[in-house]
Known about the structure:
alpha+beta; Aldehyde Oxidoreductase, domain 3; five-stranded antiparallel β-sheet; four-stranded mixed β-sheet
Amino acid sequence: DAASTPTSLSRDWLSVQEVVDAVSSSSCGAISVFIGTTREDELDGRKVIGLEYEAYELMAQSEFTKLCADIRERWPTVTHICVHHRLGWVRPVLPWQISSPHRHDSQQAIQRCIDQLKANIPIWKKEVYDTQDSSWKENAECSWSTRNKSSSESV
């Protein structure tokens, strides 16, 4: 099996089985899966009922390509990587799968993918509440995040 790296940003429903099929291989004994979902947290008397995602799609695709290359460099045994992310109004957000001959590499690689997606890929999330209010959320992992500023940068 040749290594593959399908990536996708879509407003359509994402099929976890389709993504699993994309990474399945007779040479791989492990498929690590991450599925992002909507937490129905309650904050200030409001319950999160869904998320809305937007992206700078061209740049996001470019960053996905860089991320997959980084994963392959760090874990040469990773055989297949499949990254799908929903845009627009979503409940289940993103299925990611990575396959490798052994579970350790695919588990570490999936964690790196998640961390790097939050830090580098231009996808933005808005929480929508049961009160019909909403608010944009930033990832603390982003270098530009106000939640990521060190005390040394404060004046």
